[in-house]
Predict the structure.
Amino acid sequence: MKPSPALLAGIFAAFAFSWFGLTVVPQEQIGNLQPEVDEEAGTVYPMVPSGLAERGRQVYHENGCVYCHTQVVREVNAGADIARGWGKRRTFAKDYIYENPIAIGYVRFGPDLSNIGSEELLDPSTGAARHKDAAWHYQHLFNPRSLVKNSLMPPYSFFFNVRKISGQRSEDALALSGTDAPAPGYEVVPSADAKALVAYLQSLDRGQDLKDAKASPLAKLVNSPEGAVK
Ligand code: HEC
């Protein structure tokens, strides 16, 4: 049977239409996003990441952090992300322009890490700063349960090396106690990958004001504390 030209045209139109809607339109909308420059304040956002943080981003992907942690903050009407202290505002496409691949994540087995490096955010349940220093991150990676009771995050102790103390103790040696403590005369130090990973975590701060954020119809709601879902 010879297919009718109308059928062929219909099939072609269906593919052409989806290609247009799923490829051309998004490319037009977000394909060429540029950093936002605020000349008055003298700021550029997002900034090109440092080489160390960029390496850390690769370590993050290589080690499956992305399977348990998201990096996307939803609007107040779409979830309690802002109320949980995961960000001051929702995230936008512009927040990710220097990332490829983007670590949006799959499921939230652990907390969202979009702003784990931000110094301003507080954890609403404890009132403690969400920002952690490098020593906290090292110990948490080495053995999450030594800092967070019953944590379900797997230990990443292979990121660390045990070595004999020769002369002075290393500056970034972990202060471990109990069963984690190394034998006397030895110390546990972060590997180059651990240092890069922690530099990356500390660089995660997507709270900068954006024009997109101000233009969003929900911006007023999102930016006001009353808007936050309790
Ligand atoms: C099997 C799931 C799982 C994987 C894989 C995982 N995590 Fe976690 N992570 C968790 C859970 C659950 C928590 C919450 C409990 C805690 O703080 O230990 C957490 C907490 C954290 C926190 C503290 C967040 C906060 O708000 O206090 C950081 C930072 C973190 N993870 C980083 C990482 C990094 C980096 C990796 C990859 C090397 C990783 N996680 C891999 C489950 C996971």
Observations:
- The radius of gyration is 23 Å.
- The pocket of heme C is lined by residues 60, 63-65, 67-69, 109-111, 113, 116, 130, 144, 148, 151-154, 156, 197, 201 (CB under 6 Å).
